Amino acid sequence: RRPEIADAIAARPSPASISRILAEAEAFYLSKVKRSWVPGYLATRRFGPEIMTQWHIGYAPAGWTTLTDHLRKLGHDGAAIQAAGLARRSSRGTLIDHFRDRVMLAIRTEDGTIAGFIGRAHPDAEPRVPKYLNSPETVAFTKGDLLFGLHETRLALNDGAVPVIVEGPFDAIAVTSADPARYAGLAPSGTALTTRQAA
């Protein structure tokens, strides 16, 4: 039986399974960052190693199925990987990674659970390549519900830091890093600010 057929008839993955896959994807991205172009790119934005660690910045390798192959080796089937928003079907029907050759940032719920990712393309990527790519909407991720940076700044917000809404995730990181006790950078990640995000 072909893997694609087996994947199609696999049981619908549970929210707990999706959460585990997303966490394992983040661990994979983090393991790839040091030997990538990401540290050099972040340095041009004046983000050092401590920012990389604090914000769990990773790297999605350029291969077509690098993450998918890794997750399959951990025991996850293609249906679950696709349901987590980490892979999609190619024009030939094979499963390929959703994020390739990108700086990777997790979008978390307020309690810190990973809901999805934002991937930033290489600065020299072709114009047709979108600069930012979000996870597709899944059972875990509804883009209009979440703000990038809310989990990371929640304690400062509780202590009176001023929320600053900016366009992109690196802007949010820059605002927070400028004075973490006074400002909390938050980004809607490519959407107009929704009432759910404001709440």
Summary of the model, kept short:
The chain is α+β, with helices and mostly antiparallel strands. Helices cover 37% and strands 18% of the residues.
Task: Provide a descriptive summary of the structure in words.
This protein is of the alpha+beta class and 199 residues long. The protein is 37% helix and 18% strand. The strands form three sheets. A four-stranded antiparallel β-sheet has the order 1-4-5-6, covered by helices on one side. Strand 4 and strand 5 form a beta hairpin. The longest helix is centred in the N-terminal third of the chain and has 18 residues, at 15-32. The chain is globular and about 50 Å long. The model has no long low-confidence stretch (mean pLDDT 91).
**Count of β-strands:** 8
Number of DSSP helices? 9
The helix/strand order is HHHHEHHEEEEEHEHEH
Q: Flag low-confidence runs.
A: none
How much helical structure, as a percent, in the residues? 25-40%
User: For the CA atoms, what is the radius of gyration?
Assistant: 17 Å
Distance between the ends: 48 Å
Strand content: 15-25%
Spatially, the strands of the biggest sheet line up as 1-4-5-6
Most strands sheet: 4 strands, antiparallel
Secondary structural class: alpha+beta
- Shape type: globular
Mean pLDDT: 91
